[in-house]
Amino acid sequence: MAMDAFSKSLMADKREIIIAPTIYKFADFGEFAEQFQLGERDVVLTNEFIYKPFMEKYGLKCHYVFQEKFGVGEPSEAMIETMYETIPYDSYDRVIAIGGGAIMDLCKLLGCKRPSSVHELYFKREPIVHEKEVIAIPTTCGTGSECTNISVAIVKDEKDGVLTGGETKLGLVSDDIIPNKVCLIPDLLKTLPYKPFASSAIDALIHATESYLSPHRKTITSELFSVKAMEMILKGFVQIGEHGPDARLDYLDEYVTASLYAGIAFLKAGCATVHGMSFPLGGTYHVPHGESNYALFGKILEIYDEKDPDGELMHFKQLVGSILGCEAKDAIPALNALLEKVLPLKPLREYGFKESDIKDFPVSVMAN
User: Fold this and answer.
1) Which of 168, 267, 362, 365 has the fewest CB atoms within 10 Å around its CB?
2) 243 or 276, which is more confident?
3) What is the pTM (predicted TM-score) of this model?
């Protein structure tokens, strides 16, 4: 397959920008709010269950908007259109995203000039123009979306310019949507329930793994950050495997930092088969992003291992083996067994997956 335009430009220009946003870390939301002097011309997109325990007590004059006002689940065309109607473009100067991957993706759009059509934007028939400052504060430890150049949404599917009546998940990719600043506040992860924590942390591990194994776009930077992210996440998972879910609570700083590292690796080297195959699964059956990736991750690693066990994958297996205390040849089974302890894996059929999807989904992946 021919290399995409972004990969070609990256390979042609050997200089590396480590990461676009400026990165901060704060003890709590109040410290962040004081540093950035939040006020009336700031719009904060978050969830009410995050606002109540962490932000309400400060009585700030900024405009809080709750994502659930637009709908539930991952961003969709309808959700984005409702968001645009709720938050007029001339009502704010700065955008603060406080939440998971969906909020990050929505706020990337709030920082850009409004398109005439969300559908046209995601099918790349409208330009992306970044005009307002975006500050990203993740409250999960997985998407890495706070520093990446992609915004994902479920949109109406089309073929040859004609709507099919179905839906698909597409990524809007542009360096112009990378947030301007990233603020890490581990305190905001304390109320994150275990299952979304686990699926998001596994998603971060997948970001790091796929970036590390990327054959065309891997760089010195992506390798550095992906290796560190994998080390930190796997060490945390070992603690959970040995001591149970509450072991995560003493490791939240490391998890949110590792997620950022994985996001940097993803920004530089991109993702691959796991993410590609997860898009129709997530879009068709509304499976959360991290969970849909996890559903495919272990099996795809096994297929990689069957195809070329001694290639670049060997370095990955050696790294995993050194952390999990096993030989490289046993690393992938040991990794899958550890992930099963962290979050039991559901069979695809429990999501609604049909036998016909085995043929149809790869066609959708290659087309979109």
Assistant:
1) 362
2) 243
3) 0.83
